[in-house]
Q: What sequence folds into this?
């Protein structure tokens, strides 16, 4: 059975991970991880470097192939999906992207425009994230923070219902970090579910609702009281 | 052969002698598609794959020599077809090995390359050892190309260009960001297999131009030069094709004037351009780039 989530009718609301175990070759990275979040939640995944945070994200996104019956989006097993366009993903810097070869902001965003959103909407997103004037620049000339915003535009381009941010503030200077989380909080208030991967929870001025802390591949999940609005 | 014509200026000789015109057209077609494909090969950090496939094609050529010279099986025709077949088989083995050594994918290259080279040595020796045909395989024989070859590469070029235009977005995504490509549902494994097949086709066909030992240079060097000065992706590819075509025309011209091998000359000019762009970048562009970067990052 194939389930196509390309159509606009379906929206992502719930993510549930059920006893997820995953490893590369002989090495187990994640052991028995379970948690559940609902639409509009804000989950922070914390843990040291190498604890398996990014691996977890890649499992959710189908980049790592997991066994069936472990991860469900909207009660549908992720192994049945053929794409994850409804999820916005901002990868960790320098993680998978091939830098150094010249490509402009516009070129990479246009190639990523799978949903074929209109020119106007793309410009609006660029403007909203403050990188409108950078659209014709080679990405290799951008600062870490500017590059991060390019990836955020790319993640938002496909109208995500779930936004996954993997260490989004690494390499971003301090004064921009706060502004960044402010806009993430706003997106969350608009109803987009957020998963934030970070090794430094203190840095996150994010209005989180749940925390999953991963240590040596094992996770502890708990709900946290949300800060009052304003 | 070319030596006898040396009194006629190159531009006139091209129109007087078919073999020169064929050589130039073949060079220009290969000069167009090799950097085009080479760009994606470089971005995916697979530069070594062209070399590996060309060495594996040599095995096909050597087996061809053995079949025609030793066993007199002339029905196989041009050994080039065996080179294409061998390259496709080589591509297949590389893909299998890359899957087998998930974390050390590059291991596949030396394995396939040594298999190709040793098979070549074996069959060249069985076919009677070193001769001018072997020399042509190793260093190219651009001046001997015929109609058939021109049709073959013209069709290949059209296919390559159509594929790139039709799947441009997907190719860019898979090349630059494989994880994101998977996320949006591109079947990366299948995609990679098809692109390696096309690559093997182009590599084996370009053996005629510069020979097994220099094939990779056609794909890699113009792009390596262009990526240092390109402003955008399209701009870089355009510059790479421009460099590549200049080296073909200049290489043919110099080889005609000085009676030197065209394949090697083309590659040497490519290297010269690479050094010149490096020089330009280092001493002229870098200063401007630094201030430009600062300007951009202030925005």
A:
């Amino acid at each position: 059975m194939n389930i196509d989530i390309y159509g606009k009718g379906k929206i992502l609301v719930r993510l549930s991970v059920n006893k997820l175990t995953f490893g590369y070759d002989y090495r187990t990275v994640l052991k028995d991880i379970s948690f559940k979040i609902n639409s509009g939640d804000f989950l922070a995944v914390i843990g040291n470097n190498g604890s398996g945070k990014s691996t977890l994200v890649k499992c959710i996104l189908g980049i790592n192939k997991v066994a069936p019956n472990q991860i469900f989006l909207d009660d549908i097993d992720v192994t049945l999906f053929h794409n994850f366009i409804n999820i916005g993903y901002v990868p960790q810097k320098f993680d998978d992207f091939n830098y150094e070869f010249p490509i402009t902001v516009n070129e990479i965003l246009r190639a990523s425009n799978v949903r074929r959103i209109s020119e106007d909407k793309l410009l609006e997103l660029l403007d909203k994230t403050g990188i409108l004037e950078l659209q014709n620049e080679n990405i290799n000339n951008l600062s870490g923070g500017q590059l991060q915003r390019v990836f955020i535009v790319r993640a938002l381009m496909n109208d995500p219902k779930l936004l996954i941010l993997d260490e989004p503030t690494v390499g971003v200077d301090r004064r921009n970090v706060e502004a960044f989380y402010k806009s993430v909080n706003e997106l969350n208030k608009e109803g987009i579910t957020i998963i934030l991967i970070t090794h430094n929870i203190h840095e996150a001025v994010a209005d989180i609702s749940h925390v999953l802390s991963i240590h040596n591949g094992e996770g502890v999940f708990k709900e946290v009281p949300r800060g009052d609005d304003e | 052969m070319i030596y006898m014509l040396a009194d006629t200026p190159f531009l006139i000789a091209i129109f007087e002698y078919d073999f020169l015109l064929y050589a130039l057209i073949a060079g220009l077609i290969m000069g167009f598609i090799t950097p085009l494909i080479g760009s994606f090969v470089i971005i995916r950090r697979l530069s070594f794959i062209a070399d590996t496939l060309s060495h594996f094609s040599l095995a096909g050529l050597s087996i061809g020599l053995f079949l025609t010279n030793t066993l007199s099986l002339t029905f196989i025709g041009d050994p080039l077809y065996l080179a294409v077949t061998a390259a496709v088989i080589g591509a297949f083995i590389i893909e299998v090995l890359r899957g087998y050594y998930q974390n050390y994918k590059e291991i596949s290259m030396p394995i396939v390359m040594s298999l190709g080279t040793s098979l070549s040595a074996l069959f060249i020796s069985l076919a009677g050892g070193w001769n001018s045909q072997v020399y042509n395989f190793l260093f190219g024989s651009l001046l001997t190309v015929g109609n058939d070859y021109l049709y073959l590469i013209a069709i290949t070029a059209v296919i390559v260009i159509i594929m790139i235009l039709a799947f441009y977005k997907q190719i860019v995504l898979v090349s630059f960001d494989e994880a994101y490509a998977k996320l949006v549902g591109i079947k990366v494994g299948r995609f990679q297999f098809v692109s390696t097949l096309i690559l093997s086709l182009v590599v084996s066909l370009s053996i005629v131009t510069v020979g097994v030992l220099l094939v990779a240079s056609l794909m890699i060097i113009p792009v390596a030069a262009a990526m240092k000065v390109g402003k955008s992706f399209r701009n870089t590819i355009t510059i790479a094709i421009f460099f590549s075509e200049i080296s073909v025309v200049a290489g043919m011209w110099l080889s005609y004037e000085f009676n030197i091998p065209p394949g090697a000359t083309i590659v040497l000019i490519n290297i010269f351009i690479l050094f010149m762009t490096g020089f330009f970048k280092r001493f002229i562009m870098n200063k401007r780039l630094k201030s430009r970067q600062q300007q951009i990052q202030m925005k």
Notes: Chain B has a mean pLDDT of 88.
